[in-house]
Amino acid sequence: FFFRYCVNTMKLLHSKTWIEPLVVATMCEKMDVVALATKNKIMLHNTQSFQRLFMLDTLHEVTTLSWSPNGKLLVAGFSNGDVHLYQVEDGQCIVEFKAATPDVSSSSTCLHCHTAPITGLYWVDARLPVGALDRAEGVLL
Question: What CATH number does residue 134 fall under?
Answer without folding.
Answer: 2.130.10.10
